[in-house]
Design brief:
mainly alpha; 2 strands; 2% strand
Length: 182
C-alpha cells in the first residue's frame, strides 16, 4: 500500500473514532496528547461502529447474502463467463462459437441469479431485466422446441407486452419486499 493511501486510511479511522486528531505519526498536526498516550490505552479504545457503504445498504435495505455466503461463487461465475465469452470472440475454428455461447449462458445465469436475489430481497429493482429475461427464455423454448414460425412483428409485440406485464408485476412485488425489509 502506498504511503499516501496508508495516511488517508489513518485519517479516516481517526475521524470515525471521533477523535478529530490527525492520525499520522510524526506529522506537524499531531497533538501531544496522542503522542503521550500509552499504547495500551490506544488499543483499549473501542473502534467506532462501521457505517455500511452505499454498496452494502440501499434505502435502508441490506444487500442479501447468497446461500453460499462466504464462498464467492457469483464472482467466480462472472469471471468464468467473461473469460469464456472473450475466448469465444478471439478463438478461431469451430470452437469459437461454442465458447462464446457457453460464456453468454454462464453470464446470463449468474447475473440473473444475482438480480433475482437482490430484487426479491427488496435491495434493488431489476423488474425490466427479469421480465425480459423470462420472456426471452420462453420465446427461445417455443422457437426451438415447438415451432420455428414464432418470429416477426407479431411475436415481438406479444413478447414485449408479456415482458411489460411481467415487469409491472415484478415492480409491485419489489415495492412490497422493500417495505417489508425496512
Amino acid at each position: 500500500m502506498s504511503k499516501s493511501r496508508a495516511k488517508k486510511k489513518q485519517r479516516q479511522r481517526a475521524r470515525a473514532a471521533g477523535t478529530g486528531v490527525r492520525a499520522t505519526a510524526g506529522a506537524p498536526g499531531a497533538t501531544a496528547e496522542r503522542a503521550t498516550r500509552p499504547a495500551s490505552a490506544r488499543q483499549a479504545q473501542a473502534p467506532a461502529e462501521r457505517r455500511p457503504s452505499r454498496l452494502d445498504e440501499r434505502d435502508g435495505v441490506a444487500r442479501p447474502a447468497p446461500p453460499w455466503a462466504p464462498f464467492p461463487l457469483t464472482e467466480i461465475g462472472i469471471a468464468a463467463g467473461i473469460a469464456l465469452f472473450g475466448l469465444g470472440l478471439v478463438a478461431s475454428g469451430t470452437n469459437g462459437p461454442y465458447l462464446f455461447a457457453i460464456g453468454m449462458l454462464v453470464l446470463v445465469v449468474v447475473v440473473g441469479e444475482l438480480c433475482l436475489r437482490e430484487h426479491v430481497a427488496g435491495f434493488r429493482s431489476h423488474s425490466i431485466l427479469l421480465g425480459l429475461l423470462a420472456v426471452t427464455a420462453v420465446h427461445m423454448v417455443v422457437f426451438y422446441a415447438v415451432t420455428r414460425d414464432w418470429r416477426g412483428p407479431v411475436a415481438l409485440a406479444v413478447d414485449l407486452a408479456l415482458a411489460g406485464a411481467l415487469a409491472y408485476w415484478l415492480q409491485r412485488r419489489f415495492r412490497a419486499a422493500q417495505a417489508t425489509a425496512r
